[in-house]
Design brief:
It is a single chain. This protein has 399 residues and is α/β, with parallel strands linked by helices. The protein has 2 domains: 8-210 and 331-395, Rossmann fold (3-Layer(aba) Sandwich), CATH 3.40.50; 238-242 and 247-318, formyl-coa transferase, domain 3 (2-Layer Sandwich), CATH 3.30.1540. The chain has helices spanning 17-27, 61-64, 80-90, 104-107, 112-115, 143-149, 170-193, 203-209, 212-221, 255-264, 279-284, 286-297, 302-311, 322-326, 329-333, 375-381, 387-395; strands at residues 8-12, 31-36, 51-52, 59-60, 70-74, 95-98, 123-128, 197-202, 238-242, 247-251, 316-318, 337-341, 347-351.
Length: 399
C-alpha cells in the first residue's frame, strides 16, 4: 500500500509552488483532484514551447514537470453551482490546498472559516506570497520578486556587478517542499486527535528560512553578507576553478582534505603554511591563496584534476550541462528520468521522484492529465452525480 493511499487532496493551486507540493503527495499515493478553470486550466498549460502531445491536446513541458499522478476536474468558480460543487468536494476531502491571494477563497465560500464547522477534520493549506498576517498580504507573490525581496539575489552573482537570480524558480520549489512537509505533519496530528488545522505557508517566509547559514552569519556577526560569486563565505577553497579546458568545482571541506588537495596539485608545503593550514586561516588569506591555486589548476584539463582529486578523497566535480546530467549514469541508475505515455498516446520523458523509501517508495502512477480529463468520473464517483446532471452542468458552463 502506498504511504498516502486513502488521502484525498482537493487542489486549487496553479503554476509551481502548490502543484509541486501536491505532486510530491500524489507520488506517495494521495488522490489529488486538480481543480482547473474550464477551457483554460492551469496557467502553465500554455507556458510553452516546448510542448508534448498531439496539437489538439498539447501540454507545455512546464505543466508536465509538476502535475504527474493527478486527476483534472474543471469547475467554474465564477458560478454559484461551481462553488457549490467545490464545497461538496471539499467536505469529502482530507486536505484542501489553494494559492489564491489572501481572502479570495472567502468570495467562493471555500475559506477555512466557512468549511471548518462542517468538516472539523479538514487540513486546509494556503500558499501565498507573504502569508495571511503580513503587512504585504494583499500583494501578488511571484518567485522572481521573492528572490529579490528575500535577500537571496543580494548574495547571488559575481562580487562585482548586479545581483543574479537563481536559474530555477527556487523560492516556489522550496515553498512547495515546506507545504508538503506541513501537510504530512498535520495528517499525523489528525491521526492522534481527529482535528484538522489551517496551514499558512508563504514564499517569502520559505525563502528566508532557506537562507540558513547566510542569515545566521549576519544574525551572529551583524555584518551584512556580501556576494562571493562562486566562492564560499566560510570555507576556502570551495569554488569554481578554471582548468586548462573548462571550469570545474572544488569543495575542500576540512583541513585533512586540504592537505590531500595540496599533495595532488604538487604543493604539499601549502598545507603546512600557517596562512593556509586551517580553514579559518584560509578564509582570512583567501586573496593570497586563491590566485596561486588558479595558476596551478589552469595547467591541466578538468577531467584529469577531477579524477586525481577524487582518488585522493577530495570532493570535486565537473560542471555539467542539463543534457550532461540527464544522460549521466547516476540519473539513470537512480530512476530520475522516466518514460511515460500521455493520455493521447504520445510518448515523452519526465523527471522521476528523487525519494527512495524501502517499503513505500513514490511512483509515477499516471501521466499529467489533460484539461478536465477526469471531470465526469470525479463528479460521478465522488459526488454521485448522474450523467444527465453532469451534462446539464456542462451545458451551463459550470464544468
Amino acid at each position: 500500500m502506498a504511504a498516502l493511499q486513502g488521502i484525498r487532496i482537493l487542489d486549487f493551486t496553479r503554476v509551481l509552488a502548490g502543484p509541486f507540493c501536491t505532486m510530491l503527495l500524489a507520488d506517495f499515493g494521495a488522490e489529488v483532484i486538480k481543480v482547473e478553470r474550464p477551457g483554460v486550466g492551469d496557467d502553465t498549460r500554455q507556458w510553452g514551447p516546448p510542448w508534448a502531445g498531439k496539437p489538439e491536446n498539447r501540454m507545455s513541458a512546464y505543466y508536465l514537470s509538476v502535475n504527474r499522478n493527478k486527476r483534472s476536474l474543471t469547475l467554474n468558480l465564477a458560478t454559484p453551482e461551481g462553488c457549490d460543487l467545490a464545497r461538496r468536494l471539499a467536505l469529502t476531502s482530507d486536505v484542501l490546498i489553494e494559492n489564491f491571494k489572501a481572502g479570495q477563497m472567502q468570495d467562493y465560500g471555500l475559506d477555512d472559516e466557512s468549511l471548518r464547522p462542517r468538516h472539523p477534520g479538514l487540513i486546509y493549506a494556503s500558499i501565498t506570497g507573504y502569508g495571511q498576517t503580513s503587512p504585504y498580504a494583499d500583494r501578488p507573490g511571484y518567485d522572481y520578486v521573492i528572490q529579490g525581496q528575500s535577500g537571496l539575489m543580494s548574495i547571488t552573482g559575481p562580487a562585482e556587478g548586479e545581483p543574479y537570480k537563481v536559474g530555477v524558480a527556487i523560492s516556489d520549489v522550496i515553498t512547495g517542499l515546506f507545504a508538503a512537509n506541513a501537510i504530512q505533519a498535520a495528517l499525523r496530528h489528525r491521526e492522534r486527535t481527529g482535528a484538522g488545522q489551517f496551514i499558512d505557508v508563504s514564499l517569502l517566509d520559505s525563502q528566508l528560512a532557506a537562507l540558513v547559514n547566510v542569515a545566521s552569519n549576519y544574525l551572529v556577526s551583524g555584518t551584512p553578507p556580501p556576494r562571493f560569486g562562486n566562492e564560499h563565505p566560510n570555507i576556502v577553497p570551495y569554488q569554481v576553478f578554471q582548468a586548462a579546458d573548462k571550469p570545474f568545482v572544488v569543495n575542500v571541506g576540512n583541513d585533512r582534505q586540504f592537505r590531500q588537495f595540496c599533495a595532488v596539485i604538487g604543493q604539499p608545503a601549502l598545507a603546512d603554511d600557517a596562512r593556509f593550514a586551517t580553514n579559518p586561516a584560509r578564509v582570512v588569506h583567501r586573496e593570497t591563496l586563491i590566485p596561486l591555486l588558479e595558476r596551478l589548476l589552469a595547467q591541466r584539463p578538468a577531467a584529469e584534476w577531477t579524477q586525481a582529486l577524487l582518488d585522493a578523497g577530495v570532493p570535486v566535480g565537473e560542471i555539467n550541462t542539463i543534457p550532461d546530467i540527464l544522460s549521466d549514469p547516476h540519473a539513470q541508475a537512480r530512476g530520475l528520468v522516466q518514460d511515460v505515455t500521455l493520455a493521447d498516446g504520445t510518448a515523452t520523458t519526465l523527471l522521476g521522484s528523487p525519494l527512495h523509501l524501502s517499503a513505500t517508495p513514490p511512483a509515477l502512477h499516471t501521466p499529467p492529465p489533460l484539461l478536465g480529463q477526469d471531470t465526469d468520473a470525479i463528479l460521478r464517483d465522488v459526488l454521485g452525480l448522474a450523467d444527465a446532471e453532469i451534462a446539464a452542468y456542462r451545458k451551463k458552463g459550470v464544468v
